[in-house]
Design goal:
19% strand; binds o-succinylbenzoyl-N-coenzyme A; Enoyl-CoA_hydra_C; EC 4.1.3.36
């Protein structure tokens, strides 16, 4: 018997569901009729939800998924792909999923992709940029770019190659084959594979374990793992976290207090660690 998890709505959207269970937020694409393909609006809503997850201090981990059990996400909705991007109600073509990818990567909390069914094209890239991927046994993974006239040369190529290696990444993009959950596990593309009816309860169990860990340590680890690969943007993220930690110290507060009190700071009492 699979355990039923109660999810409380955080905010109503048109194309996604955004809910919470304790310290876990769940962002779920709600377009199962097109295997959860995304439009500019879907992406805009996911970006807003990610910002809320970032700002809410009671949320410690984010689950990213798709509704219906048959697809995580099938990438950009090809029916609204126009001249230079995906076209929303304002008639402007956009590739705003790139902004979402950066947000997932720099969110200072773990993001877990919970994948049932298809993770294809831009949908595959979204699971790749998540910190962890938990796959159901019906999950299928792959890129379609060269088949449908697109490609993602950013995280979708370079980070994929870091995850599965250069040879495998080139195979995935050049052949556009599909890989089942076990093959994905074997190539290190996902963290674990579970029966479909155990997907949510396993994901929540992983989240609850993460929630027992030190949030600052998790934050530092995520930005440290990113920094090695992300150049100046990665260093900025890691250094920002170092600043956060420094601001928590009495030594840093002495600098602020001295300025406010219009006196010279007294840093003598703070140790010069080896
Ligand atoms: C997933 C597939 C293999 C499933 O096949 P299956 O099970 O036979 O189902 P279908 O009958 O094909 O699908 C069911 C219904 O869903 C619709 N549908 C599926 N995927 C999409 C989609 N992506 N867009 C619009 N509709 C979709 C089907 O049409 C069908 O509807 P009905 O019932 O009405 O016929 C199979 O569905 C499949 O191959 N899907 C397409 C996968 C794909 O090619 N995705 C797009 C890949 N490209 C991107 O995602 C680009 C991402 C991006 O934005 C980007 C990012 C960075 C840089 C560049 C780009 C860029 O856009 O170029």
């Amino acid at each position: 018997m699979s355990e039923k998890i109660d999810w409380t709505p955080i905010k109503e959207f048109k194309e996604i569901l955004f809910t919470q269970h304790g310290g876990i937020a769940k962002i779920s694409i709600n377009r199962p009729e097109v295997h959860n393909a995304f439009t500019p609006l879907t992406v805009q809503e996911m970006i807003e939800a990610m910002h809320i997850c970032r700002d809410r201090t009671d949320i410690g981990v984010v689950v990213f998924t798709g509704e219906g059990g048959k697809a995580f996400c099938s990438g950009g909705d090809q029916s609204v792909r126009g001249h230079g991007g995906y076209v929303g109600e304002d008639a402007v073509p956009r590739l705003n999923v790139l902004d979402l990818q950066k947000l997932i990567r720099s969110l200072p909390k773990p993001v877990i992709a919970m994948v049932a069914g298809w993770a294809i094209g831009g949908g595959h890239v979204l699971h790749v940029v998540c910190d962890l991927t938990i796959a159901a046994d019906n999950a299928r993974f792959g890129q379609t770019g060269p088949k449908v006239g697109s490609f993602d040369g950013g995280f979708g190529a370079s980070y994929l190659a870091r995850v599965v290696g250069q040879k495998k990444a080139r195979e995935i993009w050049f052949l556009c084959d599909q890989y089942d959950a076990q093959e994905a596990l074997d190539m290190g593309l996902v963290n674990t594979v579970v029966p479909l009816d155990k997907l949510e309860e396993t994901t929540v169990a992983w989240c609850n374990k993460i929630l027992q860990r030190s949030p600052l340590a998790l934050r530092m680890l995520k930005s440290s793992l990113n920094a090695e690969l992300d150049g100046q943007a990665g260093i900025q993220e890691l250094a920002g976290n170092a600043t956060l930690l420094y601001y928590l110290s009495e030594e840093a507060k002495e600098g602020r207090n001295a300025f406010i009190e219009k006196r010279q700071p007294d840093f003598d009492k703070y140790p010069k660690f080896p």
